Amino acid sequence: MSTAVADVIVEDALPADEPGGRRANLAANLVQLARKPVFLLASLYVLFVIVSAFWPKLFTAQDPYETHPELAAQGPGAAHLFGTDIYGRDLWTRVLYGSPLTIKATLIALVIALVAGLGLGIVSGFFGGVVDAVLMRGIDVLLAIPGLLLALSIVTALGYGTVPVAVAVGVAIVPGFARTTRAEVLRVKTLPYVEAARAGGASWGRVLLRHILPNSWGPVAVLAVLDAGVAIIAIASLSFLGFGAAPPAAEWGTLIADGRNYLVTAWWLSLLPGLYVALLVLGLNHISKTLQELTR
């Protein structure tokens, strides 16, 4: 059997336009998602946060660093949705302008985790044997250390700032990606269409790139959405502890920390930025859970 014949067999196993084909499955999944109002609300909120992170001027016209002592510690209202801080700065504006730092740090952390985790998981699952044993024992060691504690240790060594925090969080969530990728590669590697491609003469490299990786991506993508929320919490936590961007930068964790001494007299300083972050993480978790249900 030639390689071309094997490819035809594999591609015919999931016809694009037949019931059960990839296009039909995609259309059916989109219809299911459109019927889930909570999923739509979560997606819209996440989209709003991302858009406001890169274009905050679309949602506020105020300066996040301009002080107004006469407006210090005013409660939420029509003029200031989240109220003002102790320097009279608009808190809603500072939350929006603080989004780019946290969102960009989250993206850096996810890229690091995806590249390193996918690489380790693919090598471990594809080659197996001694390579698999050695790599997975190293991953087990990292999994035994709480993620935030590991990130805290790394950022202490690297220094303060948004990028060191992002690198530390990215390294801390690598083990989850490596484990998930390895499990999917081991599962897909034994499926009939992979064996058919190999029987047709396809090289292992071609099988890996054409068949194993595309069909192993689903659970990894779901984990990426879920770990985006984990990364946001970890980055905000490290910023809260003072490892993030230096003042007067308006990072989410820093904003929450700035208001912790005024919880009785000015509760909105910590509560509203915290609620903004919590809704984002809950939205990402719900999106991840919904996508996971579709992939089952």
Automatic annotation (TrEMBL):
Matching PANTHER family? OLIGOPEPTIDE TRANSPORT SYSTEM PERMEASE PROTEIN APPC (PTHR43386), PEPTIDE ABC TRANSPORTER PERMEASE PROTEIN (PTHR43386:SF25)
Indicate where this protein is primarily found.
membrane
Q: What is this protein called?
A: ABC transporter permease
**Which controlled-vocabulary keywords does the entry list?**
Cell membrane, Membrane, Transmembrane, Transmembrane helix, Transport
> Would you identify the family this protein belongs to, as annotated?
Belongs to the binding-protein-dependent transport system permease family.
User: One biological process GO term for this chain?
Assistant: transmembrane transport
Q: Give the way it sits in the membrane.
A: Multi-pass membrane protein
Q: Which GO terms describe its cellular component?
A: plasma membrane
